[in-house]
Write a structure and sequence with these properties.
Largest sheet: none
Mean pLDDT: 92
Helix content: over 70%
Structural class: mainly alpha
Number of helices: 11
Shape: globular
Low-confidence stretches: 206-213
Strand content: under 5%
Radius of gyration: 18 Å
């Protein structure tokens, strides 16, 4: 019974619409009506600036970490590693589901990448940090957040299946689901990338200015 309560709590934590609440309470707008229309850190960065985009990113990652770590409230999972891993995956996925379909924001949320990262940090920190490096390198080279997210998601699957050789079946399946989920939630971005209309993040202003000339 307590597992069901914690899973529901994980969903509710994931449902916290950080960017929506910040945009409405501070800027008197709904972030979903601007930019890409997405209630995530990237769109917040574009519409409200790097400060608020960073805050949204941190909060959304933290949601994933906390939700996935709710297993600590049940003593049984301290002694059964397999059961703990499976329960952490369930908690994390419900948090991600909450981020994508937040009950607090009419079920219209973000793409879940930041919350997925928080989930990965809670379950497998080494793999999560490796994916962060992949994300940052791709972002440095392309300045496409969407492409960086998708490549990092695929990298997560490759790391779990072929580099770390994770033996737990549920975790291997989870890694595949993550890669598919990230790609599926970026369908519009893929279309824009193919058309050459996807927005870039101007991280390196001097370089970007030179390329535009």
């Amino acid at each position: 019974m307590i597992e069901i309560v914690l899973v529901i709590l994980a969903y509710l934590l994931g449902s916290i619409p950080t960017s929506v609440w910040i945009s409405k309470s501070i800027f008197d707008i709904d972030i979903r009506n601007y930019g890409s229309g997405n209630a995530g850190a990237t769109n917040t960065y574009r519409v409200l600036g790097s400060k608020w985009g960073t805050i949204v990113m941190i909060v959304d990652v933290t949601k994933g970490v906390i939700a996935t770590s709710l297993w600590v409230l049940i003593p049984f999972y301290f002694t059964d590693e397999l059961a703990r891993t499976n329960f952490m995956i369930a908690l994390g996925l419900f948090a991600v589901l909450g981020h994508i379909f937040p009950i607090w924001a009419n079920f219209k949320g973000g793409k879940g990448v930041a919350t997925l990262l928080g989930m990965a940090l809670a379950i497998q920190p080494a793999v999560a940090f490796s994916c962060i490096i992949v994300f940052l390198i791709t972002l440095f080279l392309t300045r496409f957040v969407s492409l960086s997210s998708m490549i990092a998601g695929v990298a997560f699957m490759i790391l779990i299946l072929f580099i770390y050789h994770e033996k737990e079946t549920s975790y291997r399946i989870f890694a595949i689901v993550v890669a598919l989920m990230v790609i599926m939630t970026h369908q519009k971005n893929i279309s824009r990338l193919l058309k050459g209309t996807e927005n870039k993040v101007p991280i390196f202003k001097n370089r970007d200015r030179i390329e535009k000339k």
